């Protein structure tokens, strides 16, 4: 379905029920709102894996402004403050109260900014493989550690120039380092990327100009947060997760030693039980 939010139309999908039969009554389930990465990607990266949580929560998937199947919008509105305010407005439009908001990668930055701008709104945050401060040199070092000098050079060029040529080189030399799994990308990973509706203009523009720093805002967040990080993630290195935990008033860090950016692929047997425990805890 499509929902009008702050002057644009966002594509939204829902999995699971908000009310569950429980004897003589209907029991409320929490809402889990999923914010995808990118930017320039869409909600399909979460499917079908996160659907296993629909027995615990009603899952709301959204293609954020300028992304995926959402309406074309003014590039001037493609910024972290607007994306954050869209989360609040989307919940208001759908009647969602006290959501649990999970942000993966870029979506995690949106989630943190939303929770700092609307601190009384979320019930909980789940921050997966994300950053509160964009530091090009730190990211370049991450790719150097995981994939060598050629990948580090390609990352530096893309993150400072953002041209189609540097984007292509980044995809060729850096994308394979997102996961240390020797089988990455698997057939299911390839299928997931094929299902996505990309916006490369948004990806190139944001990644080459992003210089945000949300660390000073983290103290405003009032809800509990679960921060999940892969020890071998080059794009959101472990130090970024530690920085987030240090800045949040109520946060716990879970480190996945065998994972890069795609924790559910490599350590899903630990990742999803942790999510389930945090949602219900």
TrEMBL record:
A molecular function (GO) term: aminopeptidase activity
AB hydrolase-1 domain: residues covered: 30-265
GO terms under biological process: proteolysis
Name of protein: Proline iminopeptidase
GO cellular component term, pick one: membrane
Hydrolase listed as a keyword: yes
PANTHER family tied to this protein: HYDROLASE, PUTATIVE (AFU_ORTHOLOGUE AFUA_2G14860)-RELATED, MONOACYLGLYCEROL LIPASE
Keywords noted in UniProt: Hydrolase
Protein family according to the UniProt entry: Belongs to the peptidase S33 family.
InterPro entries in UniProt: AB_hydrolase_1 (IPR000073), AB_hydrolase_fold (IPR029058), AB_hydrolase_sf (IPR050266), Peptidase_S33 (IPR002410)
């Amino acid at each position: 379905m499509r929902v009008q939010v702050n002057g644009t139309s966002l594509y939204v999908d829902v999995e699971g029920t908000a009310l569950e039969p429980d004897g003589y009554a209907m029991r409320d389930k929490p809402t889990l709102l999923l914010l995808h990465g990118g930017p320039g990607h869409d909600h399909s990266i979460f499917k079908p894996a996160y659907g296993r949580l629909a027995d615990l929560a009603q899952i709301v998937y959204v293609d954020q402004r300028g992304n995926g199947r959402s309406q074309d919008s003014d590039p001037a509105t493609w910024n972290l403050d607007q994306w954050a305010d869209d989360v609040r407005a989307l919940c208001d439009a759908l009647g969602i109260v006290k959501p649990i908001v999970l942000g993966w990668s870029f979506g995690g930055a949106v989630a943190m900014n939303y929770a700092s701008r609307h601190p009384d709104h979320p019930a909980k945050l789940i921050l997966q493989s994300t950053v509160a401060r964009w530091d090009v040199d730190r990211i370049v070092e991450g790719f150097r550690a995981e994939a060598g000098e050629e990948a580090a050079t390609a990352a530096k060029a893309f993150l400072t120039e953002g041209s189609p040529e540097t984007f292509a080189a980044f995809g060729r030399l850096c994308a394979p380092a997102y996961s240390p799994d020797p089988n990455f990308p698997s057939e299911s990973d390839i299928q997931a990327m094929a299902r996505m509706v990309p916006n490369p203009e948004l990806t190139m523009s944001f990644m080459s100009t992003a210089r945000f720093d949300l660390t000073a805002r983290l103290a405003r967040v009032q809800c509990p947060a679960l921060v999940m990080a892969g020890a071998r993630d080059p794009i959101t290195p472990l130090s970024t997760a530690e920085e987030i935990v240090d800045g949040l008033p109520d946060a716990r860090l879970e480190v996945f030693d065998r994972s890069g950016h795609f924790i559910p692929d490599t350590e899903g047997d630990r990742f999803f039980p942790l999510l389930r425990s945090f949602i219900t805890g």
